[in-house]
Amino acid sequence: MVDLKTQYEKIQAEIDRAVLDVVSSTEYINGPEVRQFQADLEAYLGGGYVIPCANGTDALQIAMMALGLKAGDEVIVPAFTYVATAEVIALLGLTPVMVDVDPDTFNMTTALVEAAITPRTRAIVPVHLFGQSVDMEPLLELARRHNLYVIEDNAQAIGADYTFANGIRQKTGMMGDIGCTSFFPSKNLGCYGDGGAMMTRDADLAKRMRMIANHGQDRQYYHAKVGVNSRLDSIQAAILRVKLPHLDEYCDARRHAADYYDAAFAEIPQLKTPVRQSNSTHVFHQYTLVLLEGDRDALRQHLTELHIPAMIYYPVPLYDQQAFSHYWAGGKLPVTESLCNSVISLPMHTELTSEIQDIIINAVKSYFEK
């Protein structure tokens, strides 16, 4: 699904030198590479504050802790997403409220969120799924009207741009109160282990998150808050510093590959190719098709037999996961149910060539020619 080896080989000399420099320095934790990566990412995002941490799940948890959310507070999340988004809500004693998503973008919509707001709602977590921004302008206006926090789950869309009606463009993760991202190796900006970060334009929130991620201390052995231990280590920061200048190039490569797939699948009426919003760029963390007719699982089995990897993101709605069943008393959400039974993701990464894609495309086409 992801060719990390070839990507590494293209920047091997830089990566190896960066890693060895950290090893030689012996500054493995909170070393200068971490601080410099933080500054580099702040510049890339157009300002604000970046707080590195150990992984994307920690980023979401620390963000909610920093906002002072209390047990029983409701947090609205999409039902069609990875478990981490709701997992941290439950871990903190909050209540995840799951909403359906748009059938074209797979993202939550303002109308669906508004219908789920109650007097106990305190926050909204828009997930920029598969690499495309949620339509943020109306969602932010809704949050302002109801005095709600917005925590962007930007784990799959770092590098994407959203354009407001007045023409202003902002990076995903920088529009709500806090943005959270993951540097898991397969992400568009991935390290060679675990890593994550929070981002915000609010100096006080940045200070709070930095303290919480460091055992609740702003100076050693003086703990103002109950915190956690969540650090991006110096080796991973050094790797990310090498890769960050390539991020836009990586996103362009993914878009080019997506366009190539789109053109090939346009002639197959049983397939729906990814929809691109006019007000958001798409960085294609995943290339996800919707099977409009037929058996999705049979298609995946067909591809497996031809040694073509394919993944299902996601086969089960959050509310049907055993871990979250006691949070859900509603009925089935129709779009989420449909997507869980019909989506299939094909290989998508920076190293795809037309020759490799032709093999994948021909394998998909052969299923519909049977």
Characterization of the model:
- There is one protein chain.
- This protein is an alpha/beta fold and 370 residues long.
- The protein folds into two domains: 4-245, 3-Layer(aba) Sandwich (Aspartate Aminotransferase, domain 2), CATH 3.40.640.10; 246-368, Aspartate Aminotransferase, domain 1 (Alpha-Beta Complex), CATH 3.90.1150.10.
- It has 13 helices and 14 strands.
- The strands form four sheets. The chain has a seven-stranded mixed beta sheet with strand order 1-9-8-5-4-2-3, with helices on both faces. The protein has a three-stranded antiparallel beta sheet with strand order 12-13-14. Strands 6-7 form a two-stranded antiparallel sheet.
- Helix 4 (56-66) crosses helix 8 (203-213).
- It is globular and about 70 Å long.
Strand order of the largest sheet: 1-9-8-5-4-2-3
- Beta-strand percentage range: 15-25%
The profile of the biggest β sheet is:
7 strands, mixed
CATH architecture of the largest domain: 3-Layer(aba) Sandwich
Shape: globular
What oligomerization state is this entry in? single chain
- CATH superfamily heading of the largest domain: Type I PLP-dependent aspartate aminotransferase-like (Major domain)
Radius of gyration: 21 Å
Q: Could you tell me the mean pLDDT?
A: 97
Class inferred from helices and paired strands: alpha/beta
Uncertain segments? none
End-to-end span in angstroms? 25 Å
Which CATH C-level class of the largest domain is it? Alpha Beta
**How many strand elements?**
14
Helix-strand sequence: HHHEHEHEHEHEEEEEHEEHHEEHHEH
